[in-house]
Design a protein that fits this description.
The chain is an alpha/beta fold. It is built from four helices and eight strands, in the order H-E-H-H-E-E-E-E-E-E-E-H.
């Protein structure tokens, strides 16, 4: 079991490494999503909402200029770097240049622009290293089950909000 103190220490290291652009993956929380938690917190799978959120993300990160583009006329389970859970909702967003929901950082996928604050309640892993994303780092408060966050080798400014990561109870 991790304590808040050890989590804060890890977060400080994360922010330092992120600002110098190291090639690392960071575990933000160790919480996992269970059916009981979904029912208790009244979280309902909504594949259509996930799809619309990803379309917004695609458009705001210059999707037409990506190396491997999404065909928005096709279902989201065919889009490069998107993995779904058993309910059909987005579980992993891996646009670091090599799909597979792992930290490979193969030079990115040509994403440019500001990173939007994603609202994907079932998202557990984000791999966006090696792109040209810029601006403020979102607070990720709409990602209650985020486990892994990789944003290295982008052009973000500011710091990741410590309070956003502490919203999710640690185990």
């Amino acid at each position: 079991m991790r304590t808040v103190e050890s989590f804060n220490y890890a977060l400080v290291i994360f922010l330092f490494i992120l600002t110098i652009g190291a090639q690392s993956t960071y575990v933000v929380t160790e919480k996992t999503l269970t059916t009981e938690e979904m029912e208790k917190e009244n979280i309902r799978p909504n594949r259509a909402a996930d799809s619309l959120m990803l379309v917004d993300f695609y458009q705001k990160t210059n999707g037409d200029g990506w190396i491997i583009k999404w065909d928005l006329s096709q279902p989201i389970d065919t889009w490069f770097g998107v993995e779904l859970n058993d309910s059909g909702c987005v579980k992993c967003l891996d646009l670091d240049g090599e799909a597979g929901c792992n930290a490979q950082k193969k030079g990115g996928n040509g994403l440019k622009g500001s990173m939007i604050d994603l609202n994907l309640p079932f998202l557990e892993h984000i791999f966006l290293a090696g792109n040209q994303l810029n601006g403020e780092i979102p607070d990720f408060t709409n990602l209650p089950y985020l486990l892994t966050l990789q944003l290295s080798c982008n052009r973000f400014t500011g710091l990741l909000s410590q309070s956003s990561l502490l919203e999710t109870p640690l185990q």
